[in-house]
Amino acid sequence: MNKTLLLYTIAAIAATGGLLFGFDTGVINVALPFIKHQWDLSAEAEAWAVSAVLVGGMAGSLLSGRLADALGRKRINLVASLVFVIGSVITAVAPSPDVLIAGRLLLGLAIGIVSFSVPLYIAEIAPSEIRGRLVTFFQLAITIGILISYLVGFAFAESENGWRLMFWTGFIPAAILFGGMFFVPESPRWLVSKGRDEEARAVLNRLHETDKVELEFSQIKKVNDEEKTRKVDWRELFSSRLRIPLLIGIGIFLIQQFSGINAVIYYSTRIFGLAGFNSNTTAIMATVGVGVVNTLSTLVAVRFLDQWGRKPLLYTGLIGTAISLATISFAFFFRESLGADLLKILSVGGVYVYIFFFAISLGPLGWLLISEVYPLRIRGFATSLGSFYHWFFDFWVSFTFPLLAASALGTNGGIFMIYTGVCLVGLLFARFIVFETKGMSLEDIEKKWQ
After folding, report:
1. Cα angle vertex 396, ends 236, 312, to 5°?
2. How far apart (Å, rounded) are the C-alpha atoms in residues 150 and 23?
3. Degrees (nearest 5) of the Cα angle 168, 173, 175?
4. First and final CA of the chain: distance in angstroms?
5. At residue 298, what are phi and psi to the nearest 5 degrees?
6. I want to staple 416 with a disulfide (CB 3.0 to 4.6 A). Which of 91, 236, 328, 431 is the partner?
7. DSSP 329-373
8. Cβ neighbours around 7 below 10 Å, total
9. How far apart are CA 290 and CA 287, in angstroms?
10. Please, what are the domains in the chain?
C-alpha cells in the first residue's frame, strides 16, 4: 500500500468516530416522533432526550484533553469506542425515558471525546499539504453518520419498536472503530512529546515521503524541545500571546452552532411538519434529503479546502447560510399568503441550500481550525476546551429550539432570523480574527505565537 493510500485509510478508520458522532446525534431526529408517541413526552422531556447527548459531549470534551495528552491519541479513541458500544445498548433497550436519557448521556460522553481526539489525531499524522483534506474526513464522516441515521429511521419507521432498532444500528460502527484503532499508529508528535523519538521517526517513515521525513522530524523535535523549556500550564491559553487562537477556538463554534445547524439536524422532521408535511414518513423522507445534501456538500469541502483555503470558504459559507436562513424565515412569516405548496418549496429548499453552504464552510472548519492553531504542549487541553464550547453552544441551541418552536417565534420564522443575524456577525469574525493556515505546517503555525 502506498503512503498516500495508507494515510487515507488511517484517516478513514479514525473518522469512524465522526460517523458515530453523526449517527448518534442524528438518529434522535427520526426516532423522536415514535418515542413521543410511545411515552407521551412533554416538551421538556423531549428537549432532554435530544440534549442529553450534548451534556455528555461537554463532559467528554473536558475530560479527554488531559487523558489524550497522558494516554495518547490512539488509546483515548479506543476508550471512546467502548463507551459508544455500551451507550448504544442502553438506548436500544431503555424501559423508560429516564434510562433513555442516561444512555444518551453516555453516548454524548463518547462523542465529546472523539470530537476532540479524532481531528487532533488526524492533524498530527498528516502532511501539511493534505492536512485540511484529511481532517475534513471527520466532518464528512459526521455527515455520512447523520445520513445513515435518517435512512435507518426511514427503513424502520413502520416497524414495531422501530425506534429501538434505530438505536441498535449504532452498535455496528462502534465495533468497527474499536477494532480498527488497534491497527493504526500513534501520533508522531505525541510520541516525541513523550521522548519516544525512534517510534515517532518510524511512524513518519511509514506515512510521509522519505525525502521529507528528517526535516519534519527535526522541526517537530525542535518545537517540542523549545516548549519543554517552559512549564506546561493550561492558564497560558488565556495569555495575551495566545489570544487569537483562543478567540478562534471559541468563536468558530459560537458562529457554527448559533447559525442553527443542529436545530436543523435534530429537528428537521419537526420543521418540515410545521411547513405542512403532516405525515411522519413524508417528513422523514424530506429529512433524508437533508442528509444527502449534507454528505455531498462536505465532499466539495474535502476536495477544495486545501486548494482554495480556509478564509474564502468561510466567507462563501457565511453569506450563503445567511441568505438561505432569511428565506426560511420569510417563508414562515408570510405562510398565510404564500399558500401551502409555496411554503413547502421555500422551507425545504431553504433548508437544503443552508445545509450546502454550511457543509462547505462552518461544518469542517470548526474542527480543522482547533486542530491547527494551538501550540503542541497545550494542544490537547486547548483542543478539548474548543470541543467543550462546541457542545456548550450546541446544547443551548438544541435545548431551546423545541421551546421556541412552540412559541410565536416558531410559527412566524423569528428563530431563523436570529440565526441569520449570527451568520452576518460571523463575517466580521472571519475578516478580523481568523487567519489563513493553508499550506502551513503545524510547527509554522506555532511559530506565530512564540
Report:
1. 65
2. 8
3. 90
4. 39
5. -65, -30
6. 328
7. HHHHHTHHHH-HHHHHHHHHHHHHHHHHHHHTTHHHHHHHHHHHS
8. 21
9. 5
10. 3-447 (1.20.1250.20)
CA atoms within 13 A on the CB side of 258: 17
Q: Which amino acid is at 146?
A: I
Cα 194 to Cα 171: distance, rounded to the nearest angstrom:
34
Predicted TM-score (pTM) of the model is 0.76
Question: Phi, psi at residue 349, to the nearest 5°?
Answer: -60, -40
d(CA 84, CA 66) in angstroms, rounded, equals 20
Instruction: Give residue for cell 499508529.
Output: 185
pLDDT in tens, the chain (450 residues): 678 888 888 888 999 999 998 899 888 877 888 888 888 877 778 778 888 888 898 888 888 777 887 888 889 989 999 999 999 999 999 998 889 999 999 999 999 888 888 888 888 888 877 887 888 888 889 889 988 988 888 888 778 788 899 999 999 999 999 999 888 999 888 888 888 888 888 888 888 877 777 888 888 888 777 766 665 566 777 777 788 888 998 999 999 999 988 777 666 666 676 666 666 666 667 777 877 888 888 888 877 777 788 888 899 999 999 999 898 888 878 777 777 777 778 878 888 899 999 989 998 888 788 878 887 777 777 877 888 888 888 888 877 777 776 666 656 678 888 899 999 999 999 999 988 888 777 777 777 776
Quote the CA–CA distance of 111 and 53 in Å, as a whole number: 8
**Nearest Cα residue to 14 out of 124, 96, 88, 150:** 124
